[in-house]
Write a structure and sequence with these properties.
It is a single chain. By secondary structure, the chain is an alpha/beta fold. It has five helices and five strands. A five-stranded parallel beta sheet has the order 2-1-3-4-5, with helices on both faces. Helix 4 links the parallel strand 3 (67-71) and strand 4. The chain is globular, with a radius of gyration of 14 Å. The model has no long low-confidence stretch (mean pLDDT 97). It binds 1,3,4-trihydroxy-5-OXO-cyclohexanecarboxylic acid (DQA).
Length: 138
């Protein structure tokens, strides 16, 4: 099984960025541990601050991978283009958020991606990613 994990803008700063919201662990350390607990899964990780690069990666893996876990960061709330990319590919995509976006500012309550995705997981900290991976195993 092949799963792509995609992180969007500012998620390269996890651990340093607003730790009261996103926690103080960096993603790489979390990802290494998570990877080790799923030896049967081949993971690819991709992070970019650029909308086009995120779309290119979704297109590149979206016809051959078994699942994509997508945290599009702020593009979640703005990007019709990423939503179209999710709709264009055949690989199911699960939208994730570290924070519970519904407890935050109103503009974070709307996602352009959710209705194009298989499901949405938010509010469980970095464990949101593991729960999304689990969703591809059931
Ligand atoms: C986020 C929530 C978004 O609103 C925000 O812009 C992010 C991170 C999350 O994981 O909680 O960059 O996607």
């Amino acid at each position: 099984m092949k799963i792509l994990i995609v992180n969007g803008p500012n998620l390269n700063l996890l651990g340093k960025r607003e730790p009261e919201i996103y926690g103080s662990n960096n993603f790489d350390a979390y990802f290494q541990k998570m990877k080790a607990s799923y030896p049967q899964i081949e993971f690819q990780y991709f992070q970019s601050n650029s909308e086009g690069a995120l779309i290119d990666k979704i297109q590149e893996c979206g016809f051959s991978y078994d699942g994509i876990v997508l945290n599009a960061g702020a593009y979640t709330h703005t990007s019709v283009a990423i939503a179209d990319a999710v709709r264009a590919v055949t690989t199911p995509v699960v939208e994730v958020h570290i924070s519970n976006v519904f407890q935050r500012e109103e503009f974070r309550h709307h996602s352009f991606l959710s209705d194009a995705c298989k499901g949405v997981i938010c509010g469980f900290g970095l464990e949101s990613y593991r729960l999304a991976v689990e969703s591809f195993l059931v």
